[in-house]
Amino acid sequence: MLPTTVAAATEAPPAKPVRDRLRIAIQKSGRLADPARELLAACGLSWRESRDRLFCYGESLPIDLLLVRDDDIPGLITDGVCDLGIFGRNVALEYDSARRSRGLDSSYSEWRALGFGACRLDLAVPQDFDWTGPADVEGLRIATSYPNLLSDWLAGQQIDAEVVQLMGSVEIAPRLGQADIICDLVSSGGTLAANQLKPVHTMMQSEAIIVGPTGELDETRARIADQLMRRLDGALSAREGRLLLLRTNRTTLDAVLAELPPGETPTITAVDGGAEVSVQVLSRGAVSWQRLEDLKRAGANGIFVLPVEGMLA
Ligand code: ATP
Ligand code: ZN
Fold this sequence. Notes:
alpha+beta, D-Maltodextrin-Binding Protein, domain 2, 7-stranded mixed beta sheet, 30% helix, binds adenosine-5'-triphosphate, binds zinc ion
């Protein structure tokens, strides 16, 4: 008879419970919270919120939301607690850089850039600092919440400087004497100016992204994720797109077509027995007043520009 210890070792580990619903982590509150929810709602998702507002049960599709701090999302995806996540590329790259410094590969991949939450990771110095270039950083103390990205940059530039890691309020560090300069996220630059700082070098550009695991999802969740991504692509294109409708005479049609904005092939329909035509085209971006005036001059009339609610290629 086999010893019991061997029998135990050959036993299969208890199977992980299979989830048949997709789980997406988004920021609970902060700059990305509302835009992330609005984008998912534009994909036709709706939820029932739990009392503690940490978990939202998806009603229209089997897609649930977990509401957390943005910094926790990469870890939740790495651990398989969540399948997808929406957060800033800055957080993603910092997390990746921390993993690389421990000899680990990336544990998730960027699926789409989402076009909101735009910002830059900048070096900023006191306003009276006479900046000549990155070499000026040598020997300085730099306050940041992005110690890994900053260390990578310093190594790339072969600069020796002290990284002072702070969790928040980085912009007041120079005034408090904690650091000489800072490396922080900037969008309008208003916070820097209010703290007598000026941006001098951009280390990275960021925006909100949706990420998924590097490995494959199981079949059920992969199918739900595919459906979501198709809707997401439609929602993202719809956000940019405009439907342009106009009428013109057959004799001026070529001149009008030459003035159309870049986009899909126009649909041309004969009206009034064929002398007049109606033109419909999907523009890939906003249609300027200048464009409308040029179209009018070329012979278009009854011009409408309409926002697009949804789109499925
Ligand atoms: P949390 O409590 O979730 O950790 P937070 O304080 O890290 O919140 P926010 O200030 O809401 O987060 O910023 C979230 C993300 O918004 C940033 O990681 C970044 O991608 C983006 N962002 C856009 N503009 C800015 C900005 N000017 N300053 C900071 N973050 C910005
Ligand atoms: Zn955060």
